[in-house]
Amino acid sequence: MFWRRNGLSITLAALAVLFLSGQVLAGHAALNEALARAHQPLLGLWAYLHTGHFVSATFENWESEFLQMGMYVLLTVRLRQAGSAESRPVDPGEEHEDIDAGPTPWPVRKGGAWLWLYSHSLSIAFGLLFAMSFTLHLLGSWRAAVAEHLREGLPVESLWAHFTSADFWFESMQNWQSEFLAVLSLVVLTIWLREKDSPQSKPVPAPHAQTGD
């Protein structure tokens, strides 16, 4: 019963850990190759986890993921795409909320500011996760740049100089654009394409013009 109720999150978490482990091992090897070419001491795996190389690469991607999902949550509040399984119905009269019987969450019973926070808690959470990831990406990217400059005997730039550099924003923008492209692809492709039994798809017999499931 536990697996049936939580199998999706367990599998996704296991895949995330698997691929993060692969990233760590590959990144560790790549950085040590660069250190060897510079005739500098190699790093152990634990030391590698504290380097800008690992921190920057990890949170650069997390930052773009949280930006993507946070913006998607907010944009779908007001905007529609006719025929897409990822959009709310174009006609408000077609909408309905199915609320299972059970205890009402306490912020709803409390009302006031607690209700407002709860009503927008998903976008707030994604906003905070994005801010955290962006900050850690910036710090990790700066530390990686400092280490590279030291290896090459170049002047070390300040955190502000790195924040305003083309290199840092290239790192961010190349991920941001790909995330929004991925969401756009899902929104548009679900107009015409189907995946049987997937909640991200309309039913197979559904007409292309139908919005949502």
UniProtKB/TrEMBL annotation:
It comes from Stenotrophomonas panacihumi. This is Transmembrane protein. It comes from the Bacteria. The keyword Signal applies. Keywords: Membrane, Signal, Transmembrane, Transmembrane helix. The keyword Transmembrane helix applies. The chain crosses the membrane at residues 115-139. Residues 1-26 form the signal peptide. Pfam families: DUF6766 (PF20554).
